[in-house]
Design a protein that fits this description.
Structural class: mainly alpha
Largest sheet: none
Radius of gyration: 17 Å
Helix content: over 70%
Shape: globular
Distance between the termini: 24 Å
Order of helices and strands: HHHHHHHH
Oligomer: single chain
Mean pLDDT: 81
Number of helices: 8
Strand content: under 5%
Low-confidence stretches: none
Number of strands: 0
Amino acid sequence: MSFVFILGIAVALAMDCFAITLGMACGAKGLTMTQAVRMGAYFGGFQFAMPVIGWFAGDRMLGLIKNFDHWVAFGLLALIGGRMIHESFELSDEEKACRPDQTQGSRLLVLALATSIDALAVGLSLGVVRAGILYPAAVIGATSFAMTIVGAKLGPVVGRIVGRRAELLGGLILIGIGVKILIEHLSA
């Protein structure tokens, strides 16, 4: 399997990580490098681990989750996105500044899991064609890490353009990604 092919898969999988981080960085008026690296580690780590899990689990895993994996991803992203939209209208700037760090804890864990479900399917596919997994998984994880950092650094620029409703945009991005996942799986 060529590097270009693996990189193409990695970039496609990393786009969700990029979009989510961009949205969060917009709403938070930017992320520190520590927050960006933390998010990159979560997203990159899950994007590395899920193909490996899929590769080892094989067809048995696909049979267990294929009928509802897209609903789980959609539900998680819609829930977090809806919460962000709600908070964009309900919380004042002072209240937003006082809330806990949005780039750690259960929210980040759920986002990393929701965006990596497609990576599980990629790992399963690589296992079916008897391709190796560690090299592709490492490229996928590293690409997701890098795209997360880029999203974190571009977010404030987009936030300045969008203005006060940047968190609304971030919530809409999350819901949009969930809808995209749902449509892709339901039309397949």
